[in-house]
């Protein structure tokens, strides 16, 4: 999204159009009317990435239209980004005047939270030396933010390499470690609404939950309070480490986390082959009633989709309605849509985040 498409006065109409589109996509499956969860009109995006663009002696934050890396859109502020990012942008820009920080700096990334934590990643086309380290330490102290410096083969951390987030869900506060470079939901307020909806859709259960693609435990923490126990899987080592820290930090002790991709877990549950990473875990001890999936844009592969068919309930969060529809088409002979929702993670764009609860017919 660029500044040109930022139009708060059109937000209500744009959201209504998304609801119509999602309803049309799900109409062949006799879906109920989507529940709609709107976004704040501005300052909703908790992370942002900018290239640096030189004009004469001055350098600016820059973004580009998709597919066009030659014509830069120069920015002084970024109204869709969090207030913390907008507060940090001019102060960081002023620091570029110091050659120790500004020399061959080509990209800046901001990661912030609703809890007002901040981390700045500075990317360079040169090695990071002692002068950079000293200047970055001063800057981190002045900005009240952590800083990560990146150059080829080098990563230097001042402060922490993660931010800390807090979400209030169903009367409880959950605290999350969100690592630099790992996936996190960009719209914090909408993420909180997604977590609340997912907990409500799951309900209070006496059986167990299987979670695929658990990431840093974003959904795992609140969903674990609704079931007897959880088996959660994730392939990214960074996300697994964050999820383990988040489970421990929130005192959640009924989750077993396994570093497997969804395809590997499918093979394990189908007893195609054993995995050393499942040593000591008795899969047959679980009484799975629900599977929760939050897959990448490609959706679930056919084998994983077939695996979910064996569950009474499938709780599905999707970042791509097209692949969601493909997966539902594979499942529609055994499952029906009981609830669906639209989460407006990305206002002023065509992107739609959605959720469905499928239950066995």
From TrEMBL:
GO cellular component assignments: cytosol
Keyword vocabulary terms for this entry: Methyltransferase, S-adenosyl-L-methionine, Transferase, tRNA processing
Biological process (GO), any one: tRNA methylation
UniProt-annotated binding residues for S-adenosyl-L-methionine: 185, 213, 218, 234, 294
InterPro entries (UniProt xref): MeTrfase_TrmA_AS (IPR030390), MeTrfase_TrmA_CS (IPR030391), SAM-dependent_MTases_sf (IPR029063), TrmA_MeTrfase (IPR011869), U5_MeTrfase_fam (IPR010280)
Keyword 4Fe-4S in annotation: no
Catalytic center residues: 319, 319 (nucleophile), 353 (proton acceptor)
GO molecular function, one term: tRNA (uracil(54)-C5)-methyltransferase activity, S-adenosyl methionine-dependent
Catalytic reactions of this protein: uridine(54) in tRNA + S-adenosyl-L-methionine = 5-methyluridine(54) in tRNA + S-adenosyl-L-homocysteine + H(+); uridine(341) in tmRNA + S-adenosyl-L-methionine = 5-methyluridine(341) in tmRNA + S-adenosyl-L-homocysteine + H(+)
Enzyme nomenclature, EC number: 2.1.1.35
Function: Dual-specificity methyltransferase that catalyzes the formation of 5-methyluridine at position 54 (m5U54) in all tRNAs, and that of position 341 (m5U341) in tmRNA (transfer-mRNA).
UniProt similarity note: Belongs to the class I-like SAM-binding methyltransferase superfamily. RNA M5U methyltransferase family. TrmA subfamily.
Name of the molecule in the record: tRNA/tmRNA (uracil-C(5))-methyltransferase
Species lineage: Bacteria, Pseudomonadati, Pseudomonadota, Gammaproteobacteria, Pseudomonadales
Gene name of the encoded protein: trmA
